[in-house]
Write a structure and sequence with these properties.
- By secondary structure, the protein is mostly helical.
- It has a single domain, classed as Orthogonal Bundle (Arc Repressor Mutant, subunit A).
- It has five helices and three strands.
- Strands 1-3-2 form a three-stranded antiparallel sheet.
- A hairpin with a 2-residue loop joins strand 2 and strand 3.
- Helix 1 packs across helix 2, helix 1 crosses helix 4 and helix 1 packs across helix 5.
- The chain is globular.
- The mean pLDDT is 87.
Length: 98
């Protein structure tokens, strides 16, 4: 999730990461598989998300914080308002394209 130039984080990737962590704590390698994110890219996202208080790390496990859960629900609401689609379906479809 390094910012290069004007690039912004992919909100669908953030949503997939938070969704997976809301199901329960996960080691990074399991999280990468569940969220369908390249492990190297996931590491970048997790570093920024941890810095911003969206996730917390306990040893090798990551969990979503209350702030992360709130953001996930906000993302879900925005996606549903814009697309008339359930966020989980939209996130899954987008994740399969990559």
């Amino acid at each position: 999730m390094k910012r290069r130039g004007n690039s912004l984080p992919d909100v669908y990737v953030v949503a997939r990461i938070l969704e997976a962590l809301l199901e329960g704590e996960r080691a990074a390698w399991r999280l990468a598989a569940r969220a369908r994110v390249n492990p190297r890219r996931l590491s970048q996202y997790l570093a920024v998300m941890e810095e911003r208080g969206l996730v917390a790390r306990d040893g090798e496990y990551y969990v979503a914080t209350e702030k992360g859960a709130d953001l996930y629900h906000q993302i879900r609401e925005i996606i549903e308002q814009l697309t008339d689609a359930d966020l989980q379906d939209a996130v899954r479809r987008r994740g399969k394209k990559k």
